[in-house]
Write a structure and sequence with these properties.
The complex is a heterodimer of chains A (158) and B (429).
Chain A (H helix, E strand, L loop, with lengths): L1 H25 L18 E3 L6 E5 L11 E8 L10 E8 L4 E2 L5 E7 L2 E7 L5 E11 L2 E11 L7
Chain B lengths: L1 H4 L2 H14 L12 H10 L19 H11 L12 H4 L44 H10 L8 H11 L1 H8 L18 H9 L2 H22 L2 E3 L3 H10 L11 H11 L4 H4 L10 E2 L15 H10 L17 H4 L12 E2 L21 H9 L28 H11 L6 E3 L9
Helix pairs in contact in B: 3-11, 4-10, 6-10, 7-10, 12-17, 16-17
C-alpha cells in the first residue's frame, strides 16, 4: 500500500513539475487584492485528464476557514458514475500566484461511504486563488486532477 | 498548460488597472474599493478569533499556573550564572524582545529574539518553527548553553527549594529528588550528560516531567501577552462605519502606505489577518548571516519538531494523538521550506528594529528596499518544487522613494502597548 501511495505521489510530482514554469510567470501580479483570472474554471466536479475518474470536491460547509485545519470530502466515481471504492486518494494544493504549497500535508483518513473519501489536515494560510490537486489510483488506472478554488476573505464583520 | 496560460493577460490587465485606479500620491485623498475594505476589515484586531486552546497543556488557563509562570519568567535563578531570566531577552519594556540583531544571554545565539505578544495563536514557535507549543518553546532556551545554560535536575531542585507549594497547587507534589545529581541533563556539559546517563530511566522520566511542567507554567503566563488596538484598528473601524473623521486616525501618507501594503506592495499576502502573519514559513532571500553556512530555517525546524520529545505527540504532552493536527499534518519535505522563516507579526514592528531572523536589516527602510530589489532573475521555488537554490516567495515590487516612505509611515500605525489578558477561569477541559 505504501508503494502504491508513493506511486500516486510520484504521479503528482511529475504533473506538478510540468506546469511549474508557467506558474512562475503567473506570479507576476501576485497580491491578495488582485482578483483571480476572470476565466478561471471553478468547477468542483471534473473528469480526470485521462477520463479514468469523475471527481467531486466538497468543501466544508459555510465559510472556508483561513489558518485553521479542517476537512474536505472527495467523491470518486467511474466515468459511468459508479462509486470508485477502495481507491488510493491523495490531495494537496498551493497558490500559483505566490509560489508556495499548502502549509499542511492533508491525508485521506477513511472512506466514509462507497467512493467518498474524507481528507483531513487541509489548511489555507491566506485567501485567494488556490489550486487543489487530487491524485487517484485504482488498479492500473491513475490520474491527477487539478481544481481551482477561491478561498474568500473572512466575512466582513462589523 | 493552455488552460493556465490563457489567464495571464487578464491577470496583467487587473494588475495594470489596480495601478491606474489607485495611484498612491502623497496628500491625495485615498479612496477604498469594496475589495480593499474587505481586506482592511480582516486586519482589525477585533477580528481575531478566540485564543486557540493548546490541548497539550491542560493548565494553561489555570490562574495558579499563570501566576507561577510569571514569577518563573522573571526569575534569573533559572540559569547557570543566576543572571539570565526569560525576561532578559524578552524584555517587557521592548515588547518582550531585546532589540538586538541576535540574542545575548550567556553567549550570543544564531538568531534574533522574537516578540511574544499573540504567540499563543501560532502553531509553530521560533523562526524555524522547531517547537509546536508555547511550553515546549519555553524549555529550549533553558537548556541551551548560549542562553540560560541550565539543566533538568538543576531546575527540578530549584523548584523544590523555591516554588514547591506553587508547583504543587498546579501539578501536584514534586517528586522526591533526594540523591539526584545537582546538575544533570541530556543537553548539558559532558559531565552533566554523564550524570544524566547514569540516572535510572524512571528518575529521568520524573525529572523531565517536572521540566515540562516548568515550561507549561511559563507558557500559561506567556499566553496572556496580547496586542492592544492600534491607530490602524481605530481607522478601519471608523472607515467601515463611514465616519468622516476616520482620517483623524491615519494621515494621508499613512493611508497611502496602507493601500500599498494591501495592494501593489503585496505585503498582505503573507502578513495577513489581524496579527499580520499567516503563521507560515517563506523564503524571501534575506541574505544569510553566514554565507558559508546558511541557516536552513524551516526545512530543519520541521525535522526537529517531529523528533522533539516535548512535542504534542510526546510523553509529556497532555493531548491525545487526534488533537495534534498540526504536527500530524505538518508539511516537511517541501522544497520551498528550505531557508524559509516564519512570517513575523507586524504589530508593533516600527519599535522592533533590527529586522529579519538574524537582524540583518537595521531599519524598515532596508527591509522595504530588500523587497523592492527582489531580483527577477532569481528562480522562484514553487509548490511544484520548480526552480533551484534557496528560492523565494518574493516578487519584485516597484515602489518609488515617496511610496517607500508612505509604506514605512503606515507600519508606524501598528504600534500599541502589549497587554496581559488573563483568560476566563476554566482550568480543566
Amino acid at each position: 500500500m505504501l508503494a502504491s501511495m508513493k506511486l500516486v505521489m510520484a504521479i503528482c510530482r511529475r504533473v506538478l513539475l510540468s506546469i511549474g514554469g508557467l506558474a512562475c510567470l503567473l506570479t507576476l501580479a501576485a497580491c491578495t487584492s488582485t482578483p483571480p483570472p476572470p476565466a478561471l474554471d471553478l468547477s468542483l466536479t471534473r473528469a480526470s485528464p485521462n477520463n479514468h475518474f469523475r471527481i467531486t470536491l466538497i468543501p466544508p460547509q459555510g465559510t472556508t476557514p483561513i489558518q485553521q485545519i479542517h476537512s474536505w470530502t472527495v467523491k470518486v466515481a467511474t466515468p459511468t458514475g459508479e462509486p470508485a471504492t477502495k481507491a488510493l486518494v491523495y490531495m494537496n494544493g498551493g497558490m500559483p500566484e505566490h509560489g508556495h504549497g499548502m502549509p499542511t500535508r492533508p491525508a485521506v483518513t477513511r472512506e466514509i461511504a462507497p467512493g467518498t473519501y474524507l481528507v483531513e489536515g487541509v489548511k489555507f494560510n491566506m485567501s485567494g486563488w488556490w489550486e487543489l490537486l487530487v491524485a487517484v489510483q485504482l488498479g492500473p488506472a491513475s490520474d491527477v486532477t487539478t481544481f481551482n478554488y477561491i478561498v474568500p476573505l473572512p466575512a466582513h464583520a462589523k | 498548460m493552455r488552460s493556465l496560460s490563457k489567464h495571464l493577460p487578464g491577470c496583467l490587465r487587473t494588475f495594470c488597472f489596480a495601478l491606474i485606479a489607485f495611484p498612491a500620491v502623497a496628500n491625495a485623498e485615498v479612496r477604498w474599493s469594496d475589495t480593499e475594505l474587505a481586506i482592511l476589515s480582516s486586519l482589525r484586531l477585533s477580528q481575531l478569533p478566540p485564543m486557540p486552546v493548546d490541548p497539550s497543556n491542560t493548565q494553561e488557563n489555570n490562574p495558579h499556573a499563570i501566576a507561577l509562570g510569571k514569577r518563573l519568567f522573571f526569575d534569573p535563578r533559572l540559569s547557570r550564572n543566576g543572571q539570565v531570566a526569560c525576561a532578559t531577552c524578552h524584555d517587557p519594556a521592548k515588547q518582550f524582545q531585546d532589540g538586538r540583531p541576535r540574542a545575548v544571554a550567556l553567549g550570543m545565539t544564531e538568531r534574533r529574539t522574537m516578540p511574544l505578544a499573540g504567540a499563543g495563536y501560532s502553531p509553530w514557535l521560533f523562526w524555524d518553527g522547531r517547537k509546536d507549543s508555547l511550553w515546549s518553546h519555553a524549555l529550549a532556551p533553558l537548556e541551551d548553553a548560549l542562553e540560560h545554560g541550565g539543566n533538568r535536575t538543576r531546575y527540578a531542585h530549584l523548584l523544590k527549594a523555591n516554588y514547591a507549594e506553587e508547583y504543587r497547587a498546579v501539578f501536584g507534589a514534586l517528586p522526591d529528588l533526594a540523591g539526584m545529581p545537582q546538575d544533570a541533563g541530556p543537553l548539558g556539559s559532558e559531565l552533566e550528560k554523564k550524570a544524566w546517563d547514569a540516572m535510572p530511566a524512571p528518575a529521568k522520566q520524573s525529572v523531565s516531567r517536572v521540566f515540562a511542567n516548568l515550561g507549561k507554567a511559563i507558557a500559561a503566563y506567556v499566553k496572556t501577552l496580547r496586542h492592544s488596538e492600534s491607530r490602524l484598528d481605530r481607522f478601519v473601524d471608523a472607515l467601515l462605519r463611514r465616519d468622516r473623521k476616520a482620517g483623524e486616525h491615519l494621515n494621508d501618507s499613512e493611508q497611502a502606505g496602507l493601500q500599498i501594503f494591501i495592494g501593489k506592495g503585496q505585503c498582505v499576502s503573507c502578513h495577513n489577518g489581524p496579527l499580520f502573519t499567516d503563521h507560515f514559513f517563506h523564503g524571501t532571500r534575506v541574505p544569510p548571516r553566514d554565507a558559508a553556512s546558511p541557516d536552513p530555517g524551516r526545512s530543519e525546524g520541521a525535522l526537529m519538531v517531529q523528533q522533539d520529545e516535548f512535542n504534542c505527540l510526546g510523553p509529556f504532552s497532555d493531548a491525545k494523538s487526534a488533537q495534534c493536527l498540526e504536527l500530524r499534518h505538518m508539511s516537511i519535505y517541501e522544497p520551498a521550506l528550505r531557508r524559509a522563516f516564519k512570517t513575523p507579526s507586524l504589530r508593533g514592528v516600527a519599535e522592533r528594529a533590527p529586522y529579519m531572523h538574524a537582524g540583518q536589516f537595521a531599519s524598515l527602510r532596508e527591509v522595504v528596499r530588500h523587497y523592492i530589489a527582489a531580483p527577477e532573475s532569481v528562480p522562484v521555488t514553487t509548490l511544484r518544487g520548480h526552480g533551484h537554490g534557496s528560492g523565494s516567495a518574493l516578487l519584485p515590487v516597484a515602489l518609488s522613494e515617496a511610496e517607500t516612505n508612505q509604506l514605512i509611515d503606515f507600519l508606524g500605525t501598528l504600534s500599541a502597548p502589549v497587554v496581559e489578558v488573563v483568560p476566563a477561569q476554566n482550568p480543566r477541559r
